Records
---
Amino acid sequence: MKIYTKTGDKGLTSLIGGTRVSKSHFRIDAYGTLDELNSWVGLLRDHSTNEQERDILYQVQEAIFVAGSHLAKEPDKEVPIPAFPSGLTETLEAEMDRMDAELPSLRNFILPGGHPTVSYCHISRTICRRAERHVVEIESSSDYYTDIIVFLNRLSDYFFMLARFWSMQLNIDVVTWIPRK
């Protein structure tokens, strides 16, 4: 099977349901951002040596794919797509609580960085926030994507906690941001 179809050569692509839209359409931008996020999550999973973390990140990748299919589907078309997974948001919350119990309390903003894997977490966090903004923009007309918005909001928090947790595990000093006077 050839990977190229040439159907997008004029800047158009199809939503699930068949409608052709510009590749700059807000839906394409939203699920394209999720695709970008998914690649970064794959990089995080590649860097984790903890099987439980790797499993959670795999579940996150699957959920991102499902979220992308929901965004790629025309809202008024009846096309079978997988249901958005239930329970993953709660799993992320439990993981954040577990990590938080081991971390020192945070009293300042922190500057991203300190180690490449920690920076990958922060990049994932910011891409996740962008994806969330895109979905919120689409959501303004319905409640269809509420579960996806909640998931993305919690996922960005998870990446922040994972960055702090990996900093602790790697014995990396977290650089706090203190405004200059």
---
Amino acid sequence: MLIYTIIGPVISYFIGSIPFGFIVAKLVKGIDIRQIGSGNPGATNVSRALGRPYGILVFVLDMLKGFLPVFVFDRLFSGYGHSLAIILCAIGVICGHTFPIFLGFKGGKAAATGCGVFLWLAPLQLFIAVPVWLLTVYITRYVSLGSMLSSIAMVISVILLRNDPFGQGLYLTLFSIFISVLLIIRHKANIKRLLNGTENKIGRKVSSQDSD
């Protein structure tokens, strides 16, 4: 079991570290996305800098890199300390995206990659959280607020809808709390701008104060 709880998360971390936003921006326009707008290599900043199609592309790629490690290792680790090993892989890929070794440990905010992880680990709960994001963004035009509220909705959904969330499902419950807290912490600058009324709304062109 020890081998699986080390190898899987390490590989997952390096997969999570693949900076798709940085790569797409370089290939399409030859720019360093870290020098544009918020400096964040996530899908929102890419969308503002390069256009919505490229933002969607980066979102899908970031989501896939969250989905694939937990899916593959879930198949491989079945029967080898399965639950803990898979959650550690999920943590690994999230930490890779948020603190990527290839970009000096300065990465995205985990929303898209987190969606990919939950698409395999808790799809029903994800399909509750996603409408929360859509409705929040539609009403407020704030992507950051939608991301934070949907992460909270994810925690609540996991607790209410999973069997035995504080018993056999404890690892998933703790992971959902972990990613929600991490995502909110990563949005601390956005929270300050929301409180000040200066947060950027979706649809505006990229500026030095844009958030991701």
---
Amino acid sequence: MVRWLSDDEQTTWQAFIRLRQRVDAAVAAGLAGDGLSSADYEILVPLSAAPGGCLRAKELGAEICWEKSRLSKHLARMAARGLVERRPAKEDARGILVELTAAGRAALEDAAPNHVDLVRRLFIDVMTPAEARALRSLADKVVAEAEGGTDVST
């Protein structure tokens, strides 16, 4: 039997959908002003944090929750723009390494100040510290459930 959402639960779910859509659209517009897509930024950030600016494609895909085909196609577009380089892994001929180029790092560094200002204005600054803690707790619970129901302490 289906446990349908109550009116209050439906309103909560729709509020989350609106929040995600509006924030995603605003972030995409902000990044576009700096010549990057949200997808570009999503890839550049973990590469910039990785040792040597390099990750296996499989690890990168897992970190950003992308399927192999989507990642491969987007990396090809980014490589054509000189933002990343792809090469076979030495220890595993089937594995692909993705490396942040100097141009990719520069693009990320150019976009980051505007991106952080936007995130702060749209998201961080509208919350109290207590709301931020509550959001982090909720996010941890939802992510754990989405990733297989792993228990998360609050």
---
Amino acid sequence: MGGTIAALTRQKHHVTLLDMTNGEPTPFGSPEVRAGESAAAAEILGVKRLSLGLKNREVTWSIAARHATAAIFRSVRPDIVFLPYPTDAHPDHRQVAQIAQDARFDAKLTKSTIPGEPFYPPRLIYYFCSHLRFNFPASFCLDISDTMDTKRAAVRCYESQFSTGRPEESRWEILNYVENINAYFGGTIRRRYAEPFFVQETLGLKTLDGLAF
């Protein structure tokens, strides 16, 4: 959802990215390389970045993980929490979705040991980032035609994950895949590029001024 993030920061919203893990190990990366890439992407997107420190590839739903996430919610106090769509082949993605959903509930509890003042994030919205090849059931799509270049630049920061050690013909293959997905969803709303989102709870609108026609 890098295009949406770029659009939000352009509109002067404060956006915080919470990395649940450091993303390592991977075939060509390292914690130090990944930290540098993450920082570079955050600078391009104009966001603050935090890390929860869970173990990559072994993220597990637990009370400790829930409460640590709830403490972040209490500190940041977000109006919207974006989290991965929970139907996925990647176990970490499925676990993160459940942890974040439950942390939303935990964050409002009184008489708890969770640091910070109780807070209940008003809205959960799921973004599409799946290892499965299926048609995502989007509740709505956001036009990112004006911020697609920023998204490309942020994705390219993760060079160790996409190009290092790969033959020339497959360099940046993932970027082409992301661009094709965004073009597909852009077509569904008659825009060049769009990012899809899903909501479980009814989405309330004050006006219809933001609808794309």
